[in-house]
Amino acid sequence: MCGILGFCEGRAPRKDIDTLASLLAHRGPDARGVFAENNTTLAHLRLSILDLSDDANQPMFSHCKRYVMVYNGEVYNFREIQTRLKEKNPSFAARTQSDSEIILEAFAAFGPDFVHQLNGMFAIAIWDREQNSLYLYRDRLGIKPIYYYHLEGRLGFASELKVLEASFDQSLQVDYQAVNAFLHLGYIPAPLSIYRQIRKFPAGCMGVLAKGEFQIQPYWQAEEKIGASLMEDPLEARKQLTALIESSVRYRLVSDVPYGTFLSGGIDSSLVTAVAQSLHQQPINTFAIGFWDQKFNEADHARSVAKHLGTHHHELMVTEKDALHWMPLLNDIYDEPYADSSAIPTLLVSQMARKHVTMTLSGDGGDELFMGYGAYKWAQRLANPWVKLLSYPAAALLPFGPAKYRRAARLFENPAMKTLHSHIFSQEQYLFSRKEIAQYLNPEYYSDFPLRENLSVGARKLNAAEEQALFDLLYYLPDDLLVKVDRASMHFALETRVPLLDYRIVEWALNLHPSLKQRNSQAKWLLKEVLYQYVPAHLFQRPKRGFAIPLQKWLRKDLRSFAMDHLHPDAIRQTGLLNPKAVDALLKNFYNKDQHYLYNRIWQLLVLQRWFLSKTTP
Length: 618
What we know:
Layout: E1 2-8, H1 17-22, E2 31-37, E3 40-46, E4 60-61, E5 67-75, H2 78-88, H3 99-110, E6 120-128, E7 133-138, E8 147-151, E9 154-158, H4 161-167, H5 176-185, E10 199-200, E11 205-210, E12 213-218, H6 234-252, E13 259-262, H7 267-278, E14 285-291, H8 299-309, E15 312-318, H9 320-326, H10 330-334, H11 343-354, E16 359-361, H12 366-370, H13 374-383, H14 385-397, H15 403-412, H16 420-428, H17 434-440, H18 464-490, E17 495-497, H19 503-509, H20 525-531, H21 551-556, H22 560-567, H23 569-575, H24 580-591, H25 599-616
Parallel strand pairs: 13-14, 13-16, 14-15, 16-17
Antiparallel strand pairs: 1-3, 1-9, 2-3, 4-5, 5-6, 6-7, 7-11, 8-9, 8-10, 11-12
């Protein structure tokens, strides 16, 4: 796991490469290297996980010296690829024990399409010194980040936005499409970034820079993996999924440094932990976060799972003071507006884990692949013709009922079908609808924003819940959840691997019958069946909780003055972005009335205001 950056063609950035590389020092504290030749500069900051020797440092040259690579991530099947290299060239002999060397030699031997052989998480940049061309690759699910710009023939790329922001030799312009999307979703979806000139490199894609032209094309798309037939046999499905997960976890336990797992006590992290522990004779390390507010505290559940599995368990209780400490730092860590408040406990559990290990496993992906979110039930409800017929009167009448009905009413404010998936996600999260955004932004900053929501693709038609889950797989997972984990863990130079997002599991789950995902009113039915082979079912007989903080309570108490400072009319006028009357009405509804469910909106506006104030305050 590392940090990468590079600049190709045209003049060098306004700041020297060492200064820019230092901005990524947290991602790679173990080694730093720079390659510079003609108009190309590549830099790498290394967090050593495999082959801790200096021989595995980067930038790395191919054996033939034609290619130079900087790479962030891990490719887990590198030994199998090494065997293929040996079959192609019997004289091939690896010089290191690292996956980096094998990746580069596979590119040299098999060409640009070598990426189809890789199983892992990666952001790869390879410079062809003979052809003066650059190849960029990002893993299939978007686990590892790449930001880039391509302007007037010049290409710049980096693991984090802050590097490109610092490298720019002209004023950067805010992308207000991104601001609108942020208010609707709580994150900025790819390919947008907060700046017009800088984009997020899309997941599952390769890019080629040659003669000043930069072309991006997909090499893997989830929707293309949807087949005509479905796995319907529950016993065979459990057998196959168990084998896939065990294989994935085994791959991800290859490491030359100490490791452990994040254990929330939920289904996904418990399954990953259980499989990891089953592959060890000695207790593995597990790490959990708890809250004094019992409505949010799952530490007891995590502790019970850890006790059953016999892990070496570590636990930390989070308080409002922790939120007050980390809130001012979120801009520097995430670089652009990012409203997932669970970033705070993720930072804290990463900080705790790094004191003991250098690599962790996480359970991300289970909800999107096996229908664990309430949004999927809402998608099915809203697809019902009778519900569609009653949606207008429901939307009109429910706002006059109790608070929980007023929340539900927003889902019935049914938009055009072309925006249905983002609407369901947004309103299930209690964020701003597209129509409401116009009330909160000053008119000159309001705009539409593009999202891929026509998801009736592949060899068969998906049902409403499947489509909603695919939307999350394309947007929420890579642009919110994986961003959260990557920035939080790498802030402490901690590598985090995600076994449930092995592309083999993803492709398999896309062709699993929906009745094995949601069965007898149970979400993630099959995943639970696999888990119960390792851990007793009674440990999970409770309502699902997300990895969240008591944000509503904290905003009404310890964080209230912090929120009011940033959402005060004077602060609103300073940025000029928001409508102060609308913000004031929202604050009154939250603090003075019973509309407590508005807390996510308060947090969103607080995050947005804080980002803009940081850019306008001297």
